[in-house]
Structures are given as C-alpha cells and as structure tokens.
Amino acid sequence: MPSGRSPEKIARARVLRHGDNPAEATLWNELKAKRLGGYKFVRQMPIGPYFADFTCRSKKLVIELDGSQHAESFYDRRRDEFMRGEGFSMLRFWNVDVLRSPRSVWETVLAALEGQLHQDVIASDPRFVFAARKIGGDAL
C-alpha cells in the first residue's frame, strides 16, 4: 500500500537528512531511538510544502534548529504559522545553543513534550541563569 508521500518529497527529505550540520547531528543523536524520554522522533518530515527538522508525531511537536541566516526570517514565521495551523507546536533553538548547552535544550524539549510549557514563549535570546543553592555555607 502506498504511503501517500510523493517520491519528490521522499528524495528531498533524504537529501536534507544527509546534509546535517554539527548541531543537527548532536540533537539527532539525543532524539533517535527514543533516547529522550521514550519519545519517537523523525527527521525532515514533510508537512505541507515544508520540511520539519525533527518531529514527534505523537505529541505534534516540531523542533527547528537555526543558524544566523534565520534571524528575523519572514519565511520561518510563515512556515511556523502553517505548521501551527496543521496542529503542530514549534520549538526553535539556535545551532550554537545545541552545541554549547545541550542539556538545557534536552530539558526544554522534554518540558514541551510533557506539557510543562503552557503558553507561547517568544524571545530573541532567552536565558535562564541558575543560582546555586547554599546548604550550610556550601554551594550545591
């Protein structure tokens, strides 16, 4: 039985998967084989005319990794709106964040998958700085 996907989209997804940049390879290493919380992800899934970098179908979550060429991109905004219209939530990370702070990225992805993010979070460069707790004068 045919999958319903066009041969052109399948070929394009294959090309995109083989063109991984280091950040995509790092993230995929954490997402593949249900390594992150037992959630299944696929790469370069076609959604309408677009391709999502990483998608968890069961939770309808798309993760996009962006380099500097995506800063203030009208194309990305239009694409995000299309995918949201198809019922997908969107998470966007900068490539550099995946490479420098992978644990923070994984924890954010898990929070989204587990329903801990309840509203839109839009910031040009979000940061959270952890303050170590002190117990008996010693930092943890």
From TrEMBL:
InterPro entries: DUF559, Endonuclease_DUF559_bact, Restrct_endonuc-II-like. Keywords: Endonuclease, Hydrolase, Nuclease. CDD domains: Endonuclease_DUF559. Pfam families: DUF559. Residues 10-113 form the DUF559 domain. It comes from the Bacteria. GO terms for molecular function: endonuclease activity. This is Very-short-patch-repair endonuclease. It comes from Mesorhizobium sangaii.
